[in-house]
Amino acid sequence: MKTVSSPGLKSKLVFSFGGGKAEGNENQKELLGGKGANLHGMTKLGLPVPPGFTISTEVCTFYYGNKQAYPKSLVKNVELALGRVESVMKRKFGDRRNPLLVSVRSGARASMPGMMDTILNLGLNDETVKGLEEQSKDSRFAYDSYRRFITMYSDVVLGIHSNQFEIVLEDLKHERGVELDTQLTTADLQRLVQQYKQIVRTEGKTFPEDPWEQLWGAVGAVFGSWMSPRAITYRKLNDIPLEWGTAVNVQSMVFGNMGNDCATGVAFTRDPSTGVRKFFGEFLINAQGEDVVAGIRTPQPINVGSRHASAEELQTLEAAMPKAYKELVRTYQKLEKHYRDMQDIEFTIERGKLFMLQTRNGKRTAAAALRIACNMVKEGLISKREAVMRVQPEQLDQLLHPMLDPQARKTVLAKGLPASPGAATGQIVFDPETAEKWVKELNRKVILVRIETSPEDIGGMAVAQGILTARGGMTSHAAVVARGMGKCCVSGCQALKISNDSKLFTVGQQTFREGDYITLDGSTGEVIAGQVPTIAPTANLDLLQLMKWVDEFREIGVRTNADTPNDAKVARAFGAEGIGLCRTEHMFFESDRIDAVREMILADTKDGRERALAKILPMQKLDFKGIFREMKGLPVTIRLLDPPLHEFIPHKDEDLKGLANKIDVPFERLKRKAELLHEFNPMLGHRGCRLGVSFPEIYRTQVRAILEAACELVRDEGFSIVPEIMIPLVGDWRELKFCREYCEDEAKAVVARFNEQAAKGTAPRKKIAVKYLIGTMIELPRAALTAAEISKYADFFSFGTNDLTQTTYGLSRDDSGNFLKDYLDAKIYERDPFATLDTAGVGRLMDIAIREGRAARPGLKIGICGEHGGEPQSIDFCHRTGLDYVSCSPYRVPIARLAAAQSALKQSRTKKSKPRR
Ligand code: ADP
Ligand code: MG
Ligand code: MG
Q: Could you write out the DSSP letters of every residue in 179-191?
């Protein structure tokens, strides 16, 4: 063991607990790790915790800062601390008559996979095992403990896989014709110990007999595991800094395997899946450590309330050990009251006496998180603020979509991108026509499987349970449309080889045909064979309650991205306060109007375009009226036509031929035009406001539709409405100025015409005043950098962070899913640049645009309508940089509201601010 002197290390390195006293407390997670801090906390509460000590995380940091040497003073401190344990326990470490045994447990701040497994029964050797035999008057127990210790120590410290030991154990049980470990005799266990030691020798290792050598070996293994590849990866993925380090807990053993008056178990202070206030847990008689979770025997329920249907005959702890159970109940109540949260506890009963080995805040489902938060407010245990902070925004997603029954078995065929959450099961169809026919005429449930989707597929997508595509990314047509519909979608599933002609797809060796069942999990991207039961989301009263509290604290507005009256309605129900992005092209995609749109695109003259546009105008007007009505006077931001025109043209020759016939244009000409229009990723070029510059009649028509809709509603239905007209993809103030001016002319003309008509009418009518705003999307780096100039012509800004991310990083999420996946998998970024806004990239551009835009135009209204508007960390960023609102897909509105409230609460700890809405 390497040590170096450590004059610089002033702080205390080892913290003792036990005998009713503790040197640390539960708030010292940074220093003592989560497990350690709570062991100290429980001791302070007067709970029966076996004595022990914690080596602090600072020692771990020192260890790695000093070429893996311990500070010299540590040795002395550990000896002293162990001496204290010895005197509480009245046993001696390494003593041949009355040995003290300990467990060595790792403990980072947050529980972390990849860290060392706990070693139990440390201190045993060929001598002390006899002492344990004498002490306990139970030889079987002594050798059972010894063989467990050799297995754990060899696995964890010596690096000999525990498989080898398990095989020998299984062989022995087989030879004896028994099923359970507990049926082996003392002689059997003694033989096992000999065989185990032989395995260690065969592996070229020596099993340390000296307990001190065992102890330092285990401590070294805990520190070593901090740098295990798994731990490193986990830290990287979860942004846990290396410097945090891990603590080591050394704790006197208590034994659940000393006979039938002994047991070990785990429990939750409330039901972790429903949140219902009932004590819930499992235990095993005559068992140790992880036996309960390892599935060696079927665990028994601690009480009747914890009983599963399948375990009806098993005796409860309440019945088997009533005294210990009563004490356990008192203990959990005390813990919950103290920690003011649902606890996940570990306990052991030795000869009828209860010992507590761990407590922590329990993991829970979304439903449980809500129920617990709401109940605890009612019980007076926590405040509303705390309740709001307790629920993770992302978790709510589970409640808002159907999900796969977690109990169900499933065979995962392949994985694509989790493009739109939820779960769906149905029969495979390969084309939208069949989808519509099967659903409408045969009442079947279908999954639409496509190489990629295009506008013609809308009808089929609308009736399908879910959508699966082989190509395309998170912002592909399929993904965007499905999210808008709140429908499950897995996109870019490269493993699928689809043959539309033979109506089948293959995955590896398997073939699936039209009519076969598959299941999709849009939250994980999994494609699953056959039917898996799904659970529908239900109206959740706890959610409604929490959302009420959320809105008391929230400062920034939450709007929705909605393209149809139905989207708008869903979003309103989820609490949206307006529409932040209404994409007009999705209205163009509707199957009954796409032909008029195509006619407009393919027209060679302004006249031709205007003729086609005249057909589109009334349809758009209807849509806008529908949406305005749903939003009942709330703000609605409408983006004028944005995408490159080729997206509206069919991809395949046969479809092109059909179109040529319909609109009476020669096929060859159509084909040439389609090729001319084609744009490549990242689709810039002739789209957005540039379309508006070249063909003003398109935007003019749209503005006319918007204003006519507004005027008619004001005139006929007494509406108050302020449409916000948004001009996309501006990179230069001149583009905006040009488009804005004619849009304003058009808008004024519409209002004037309405008033003229009113004046001519017989009945006296009030003058119509419709206010409107004209603003722009900030989605190009240049727009952000020239925000001061642009803001002169913009009544509002809205950050289009999808395109802004692509153009900032030069990376497109739609680039073949494959490329992007490999690229992101290489993990050169701390996190996926598409996932969160950060101050080194898109976030910095936003910050510049906000500051300079508002400096030039005080009070400029600014929002965000990219996908980031529904992502909690990005929402926090938006809150801090001073946005007025975020906008996200309808199903994410509750998530955004909660995230926004949490940001406000976090910030209000440092300063008082007032709502910006
Ligand atoms: P994990 O973090 O994986 O839960 P733990 O350190 O909590 O690891 O230990 C694993 C198991 O060993 C738990 O069931 C725990 O209750 C048990 N255990 C740990 N220390 C002791 C001890 N001193 N006496 C008895 N059982 C122990
Ligand atoms: Mg544990
Ligand atoms: Mg855009």
A: -SGGG--HHHHHH
* Position 277, amino acid: R
Residues with CB under 5 A from ligand 3 (ion): 779, 800, 803
Which helix (DSSP H) or strand (DSSP E) does residue 713 occupy?
helix 696-717
From 17, 101, 118, 282, mutation site for ligand 1 pocket: most ligand atoms within 8 A of C-beta:
118
Could you tell me if 912 and 888 are in contact, meaning their C-beta atoms sit under 8 angstroms apart?
no
The predicted structure's pLDDT at residue 69: 94
Average pLDDT over residues 818-842: 76
Q: How far apart are CA 343 and CA 70, in angstroms?
A: 35
- Note the ligand closest to the C-alpha atom of 118: 1
For residue 209, the CA-to-ligand 1 centroid distance in Å is: 23
The one-character DSSP state at 652 is S
* Neighbouring residues of 175: CB distance < 8 A, sequence distance ≥ 6: none
Task: Quickly list DSSP for 582-606.
Answer: EEHHHHHHSTTTHHHHHHHHH-SSH
* SS3 label, residue 270: coil
> DSSP alpha helices (H): ranges in 443-519?
458-463, 477-485
CA distance 349 to 48: 11
- What φ, ψ does residue 797 adopt, rounded to 5°? -115, 150
Asked if residue 225 has pLDDT above 60, the reply is yes
Edge-to-edge strands of the sheet including 504-507? 497-499, 504-507, 510-513
pLDDT, tens only, 608-620: 999 999 999 999 9
Cross-strand partners of 282: 266, 301
Spatial distance between the Cα atoms of 885 and 150, rounded to a whole number of angstroms: 60
Three-state secondary structure of 606-617: HHHHHHHHHHHH
CB distance 711 to 750 below 8 Å: yes
- Bridge partners for 560 per DSSP: 579, 888
CA distance linking residue 440 with residue 417, whole number of Å: 29
Instruction: Output the pLDDT for position 476.
Output: 73
Query: Is the pLDDT reported for residue 539 higher than 90?
Result: no
Sequence length of the chain is 917
Residue closest to 677 by CA, chosen among 604, 582, 590: 604
Structure tokens at 7: 């004059």
pTM across the whole model: 0.82
